[in-house]
Design a protein that fits this description.
With 103 residues, the protein is mostly helical. It contains 4 helices and no strands.
């Protein structure tokens, strides 16, 4: 039981760290692109007001409202793609430099 609990805590913390990192990248990109942020805020305001989302809304109500936000989905996907692409390119360039040094 203790090992299962340890595994759960490890996965939970890793998941939280990943989520925090992803949100940080998205927020950074939104600050860099005020037009995108303005469009996203308009979509969120519109969908949430149509769905009557408030502080007393249930998780399922909020989840359903989030499904009606295609621009939010696009922003998240594009940001994650850009981050992964940049990291892969950076790794590739570092490996390429190492190969040049070693030859």
């Amino acid at each position: 039981m203790e090992e299962t609990l340890d595994d759960f805590v490890t996965m939970y913390v890793a998941g939280n760290a990943t989520t925090h990192t992803a949100l940080g990248f998205v927020l950074c990109e939104l600050v860099r692109n005020p037009d995108v942020m303005e469009t996203l805020v308009a979509e969120v305001d519109n969908v949430w007001s149509e769905a009557c989302i408030s502080s007393s809304s249930s998780a399922s109500e909020i989840g359903e409202a989030l499904k009606n936000m295609p621009y939010l989905d696009l922003v998240i996907k594009e940001t994650m793609e850009a981050v992964v692409s940049t990291q892969s390119t950076g790794t590739f360039l570092r490996e390429l430099r190492l190969m040049q040094v070693n030859t």
